[in-house]
Amino acid sequence: MQGSYKTGAVQAGTASITPITRLGPLVRQRAGSRTGALVVLGLLSSDILLALAMWLTALALQGVLGRGSLSEIALASVVPNVVAWVGLRAVLGLYPGYGLDQVEELRRQTFASGATLAIITTFAFASRVGDALTRILPFA
């Protein structure tokens, strides 16, 4: 009679175990969200550093190929341009970008870059500083 248990006793014993197993996915999901947040933070940081590196490259090219250094207006527009680019990438779901196939990711990347260029150009000409900006600026 070693293996005989009453059904009521077994069900009562398993009922106390059930809530613990339900917490398993929640705990894993919270741990995954922390890891996902670190991935997004890393991607944001790398994009900001890439944008600033491109601005430094544009500054160097303007010094070599252009007629002097960039104007104060161009230098003041660095931060809003980077914010527009990173913001559009975030809105388009490119952070972290998991689950996107290569074609969709390229489409979204191209759209974010083109929309950023359109925003920069629109604000430059709407604020009537278009003549003070260099031609290389929108492509940096």
Structure, described:
- 74% of the residues lie in helices and 0% in strands.
- The chain has helices spanning 7-65, 72-76, 78-91, 102-126.
- The termini are far apart.
- The chain is elongated and about 90 Å long.
- Residues 23-31 have low confidence and may be disordered.
- The chain has one domain (41-139).
Features:
mainly alpha
Walk me through the topology.
Layout: H1 7-65, H2 72-76, H3 78-91, H4 102-126
Task: Give a quick rundown of the structure.
This protein has 140 residues and is mainly alpha-helical.
Mean pLDDT: 74
Tally of separate helices? 4
How widely separated are the two ends? 81 Å
Q: Report the sheet with the most strands, covering strand number, pairing sense and barrel closure.
A: none
Count of all domains: 1
